[in-house]
């Protein structure tokens, strides 16, 4: 019994003291909206999410997510999109990791290194329409649907990373 308490105490101490992940200090907590995510990230569906509030180009946003130990998000469902929309001010658009830079009309969406099949193009606007050489995608927050835009436009972004798994 004493040994179990000692081990539990060591695990608890480790969680309280935190751990390092990349350049960012991460402090794990059990439960709650943050879950086991770093302090500025929000847990949902087994992953950690962070909104980049500063407006960047698509490539700058992608680099910023990577620098923070994550990847630019590519939503996998409407439920995930609905969650992401709660992390930004109303009527904000944000970059997602979807583009047709390699081949016009062939859209690639990736969540880290995994290809994402889900698509949610704005049908009323006949998206993606490639007007003015639009090769990158944003979520349009009024509807949660996607539109294609010029990759050098400035938008906020959403980053994702796996939630740390706590093993006992």
TrEMBL record:
InterPro entries given in the database record: C-type_lectin-like, C-type_lectin-like/link_sf, C-type_lectin_CS, CLec_Tetranectin-domain, CTDL_fold
rRNA-binding in keyword set: no
Residue ranges annotated for the C-type lectin domain, each copy included: 44-160
GO molecular function: carbohydrate binding
Keyword Phosphoprotein: no
Signal peptide region: 1-22
Gene3D superfamilies per UniProt: Mannose-Binding Protein A, subunit A (3.10.100.10)
Domain of life: Eukaryota
UniProt-listed SUPFAM superfamilies: C-type lectin-like
Keywords: Disulfide bond, Lectin, Signal
PROSITE patterns: C_TYPE_LECTIN_1, C_TYPE_LECTIN_2, PROKAR_LIPOPROTEIN
Name of the protein in its database record: C-type lectin domain-containing protein
Species name: Patiria miniata (Bat star)
